[in-house]
Amino acid sequence: MAIFCPKCGSLMVAKREAGKVVMVCPRCGYVDRKEEKIEIREKVEDKKEIPVIDQDINAMPIVSAICPKCGNDKAYFWSIQTRASDEPETRFYKCTKCGFTWREYE
Ligand SMILES: [Zn+2]
Ligand SMILES: [Zn+2]
Fold first, then answer.
1. pLDDT in tens for each of the 106 residues of the chain?
2. Residues with active-site annotation
3. Which of these, 82, 78, 81, lies nearest to 59 by C-alpha position?
4. Using CA atoms, how far apart are residues 77 and 64, in angstroms rounded to an integer?
5. Contact 22, 31 (CB under 8 A)
């Protein structure tokens, strides 16, 4: 996937920064931090499908979390204990802006 710098149009290169992959323009130094969110979304898609939310969304607390899809920093939060009791509970977030839902792994 080729990403071009929005500032100068050069081809951006992937670079590791603090354990996350970011796209950096080798020409002007522009950093596209959206790329690290895409990486998170790919991890989510590797796993099982996110269960359909049957909770009342208005009853959910809103926490500070970055939406991997639109970058919004607020999301509804809830957690589900999976069937296997030895597994830790899974935390879910739903973006307050675009409705994208993702789960969090420790
Ligand atoms: Zn550039
Ligand atoms: Zn969103």
1. 688 999 999 999 988 877 888 889 999 999 887 644 555 555 555 555 656 656 566 678 999 999 999 999 999 998 877 666 677 788 899 999 999 999 886 5
2. 86-87
3. 78
4. 9
5. yes
CA 99 – ligand 2 centroid, Å: 6
Residues around ion ligand 2, judged by CB within 5 A, are 67, 69-70, 72, 95, 97-98, 100
- Rounded Cα distance between 17 and 23, Å, is 10
Ligand closest in space to the Cα of 95? 2
pTM for the whole thing? 0.44
CA atoms within 13 A on the CB side of 82: 13
Question: What are the structural domains, with CATH classification, of the chain?
Answer: 9-46 (no CATH), 48-106 (2.20.25.10)
